[in-house]
């Protein structure tokens, strides 16, 4: 298997953590978004949509998107289960992963890509350029604050995001919460359940790499 | 099982099609987004995040988000498989489903919710109000055109969106393509592979309900 990574971006980090939690050995290549390598012909020949992460399977299948990579690895390497054991758990993991993507990851990306000069005309990942929309950056910041409230409510009723053990939903949520630093947002001090959960995930070996 | 549906909205339709393709009998309740019923206390007691669809399992687990509902049903009712047979297929289904959500569903929603007077201050689903951003509506329209190109390229190399048979990725893509009518966008006449695929999915019994 061949894994195309990017050390500075949140979405490749999610896949990197998932692979590490599975204990799977992969060959890795780093693609520098800072240098625009994802838009160069060499990488576009791997993924024409110019997004990272990418996992090329032993069968040669090119998988992009975190869920594509996770679903493949979960089926091939079932232990430890990261996408739920029972049917109810499997539902809860993908449900909370979707909530984290839509209400955490998307607003952080909206705020960064529409507000930071480094992303001028790159408001959306992929081959096509799109102009920044400053109002969308503001909306992103407001929504991330709401996301932190939602997490605190959830983590007051559950030890992990989706169910009673660590899953893909914790990986996605942790990476988005951590990445919110780029828009200068941190979990509020009073959100004690979230802060305890965050420190616990941060201490895992998969979060160090 | 109890299914909370909404006859006018695309995301509940995705879950409705998935349930129909599985041949599972569920009790349904319609929640009218037009009347704002998703924001009323009666429904907020079911899903505090005020989104539809919702499936309440026989164990009482409350599942929201299409992927939460699909993952549960796929595990409980494996036949017919709608989320892939092999590991590679499972990866491809969730990969293409994610592409359809981000590059098809999200731009259509951006265009509708930021451009139509009926969604004033309701630019994002859920309990919190957010003002419309007209520039985002324009960007949505431009991105849907790019999505149609992407689909045509994909359907020239594959009979279905994810692999060689009908899956969840076809359901999501079909519903978003169909719903693009609300922003007055249709698959271009020259996109013959997409139009043939669209007509084939539209003829399935699950697309009639």
UniProtKB/TrEMBL annotation, chains A, B:
A GO MF label: transferase activity
KW Zinc (keyword) present: no
Xref: InterPro entries: Glutathione-S-Trfase_C-like, Glutathione-S-Trfase_C_sf, Glutathione_S-Trfase, Glutathione_S-Trfase_N, Gtt2-like_C, Gtt2-like_N, Thioredoxin-like_sf
Pfam families the record matches: GST_C_2, GST_N_2
Gene3D superfamilies in alphabetical order: 1.20.1050.10, Glutaredoxin
Keywords: Transferase
Limits of the GST N-terminal domain: 1-81
Sequence ranges assigned to domain GST C-terminal in this UniProt record: 86-209
Protein name in UniProt: Glutathione S-transferase
Organism, as annotated: Ruegeria pomeroyi
